[in-house]
Amino acid sequence: NAGVTQTPKFRILKIGQSMTLQCTQDMNHNYMYWYRQDPGMGLKLIYYSVGAGITDKGEVPNGYNVSRSTTEDFPLRLELAAPSQTSVYFCASSQQGKDSPLHFGNGTRLTVT
Amino acid sequence: KQEVTQIPAALSVPEGENLVLNCSFTDSAIYNLQWFRQDPGKGLTSLLLIQSSQREQTSGRLNASLDKSSGRSTLYIAASQPGDSATYLCAVRGMDSSYKLIFGSGTRLLVRP
After folding, report:
1. 10-residue mean pLDDT series, chain A (113 residues)
2. Does B104 lie at the interface with A, CB-CB under 8 angstroms?
3. d(CA A55, CA A67)
4. Staple A58 to which of A7, A19, A45, B24, CB 3.0 to 4.6 Å?
5. CA-to-CA distance for A43 and B26, rounded, in angstroms?
6. Do B99 and A43 make contact, defined as CB atoms within 8 angstroms?
7. Farthest CA pair distance, chain A
């Protein structure tokens, strides 16, 4: 029972490079989310999806893109990495929307230098 | 704009103590509130979810209360153990935004043997 799986666990990027953070869940959850967590801070929502083919912006979407072609996968794309995107990124899923608890992956620690 | 505050930022207690973690929010129009646990290098684990119509939720040694009118929630941990050492975060979901959770910055708890 894997739950929410994120890859990679760590990554160092140079300014201007691009990369995709992978997220997959095996719980058949319709709702998926991407958060970032900066040191000593709470989490901020980047993007979310309520089902395959449907995505929407969260609080801090600038510099990121997402897609949701299947129920299981919700990759996050950074096109032109900037130092401000240095953070820990968490993917989460929930069975329903507002009434269900979130299940989180273990995170991807990204450093942009 | 909803803001969530957790005080203190860090707490150290001897094993066996009963303790209370605090969470306050500025806008009482919330849909629900969740408490999470975060271990170092790991994702968040949902502990308790309280709907706005509820006053408390219990799970084992954990009890979370909600007072919407005063904008406060508390997480009570009974008979604390070293294994309870982690960061505890609360998050509120507003009535006007179905999929966005506003997180506090957490309380880092250390239970000393």
Report:
1. 91 96 96 92 91 93 96 96 96 85 93 96
2. yes
3. 7
4. A45
5. 17
6. no
7. 40
